[in-house]
# Entry
Amino acid sequence: MKRLLIILALLAAPAWAVEPGEVLDDPILEERARTLSAGLRCPVCRNESIDESNATLAKELRLVVRERLVAGDTDQQVMDYLVARYGEFVLLRPDTSGANLILWLAAPAMFLAALGIGYATIRRRRTVQANPLSADEQDALDKILRS
# Structure
């Protein structure tokens, strides 16, 4: 029973981040705010959205998102405002265009390069082991092993 309560508490933890005073009266605006907040990174907590974070800065960002929505901004305008203010770091999923394309492709390219190097190394070792020792080399090895 105790484990079940701990699991339920951990699953409900993200719901505790948004405080009741932050929730908008309009359910449609609140849903939009929650959707936007889920895609924004907390600058303090790193890989946690501002919707899940209890940090003071995350709370302030949630309030800014709600203020902008109440003022009539579109979702894109809210995101553009926050990116202009905090940089692309604030996005949990940055754009995959321009200079970011290099970052998105670097990891798979490095992985493929590592696979190629590993394959070449293993192949080279097999060819070295395939060449047997000559009779003189075998005699020298036997001498070393006996002493």
Observations:
- The chain has two domains: 2-90, 99-146.
- The mean pLDDT is 82.
- Residues 99-130 form the longest helix (32 residues).
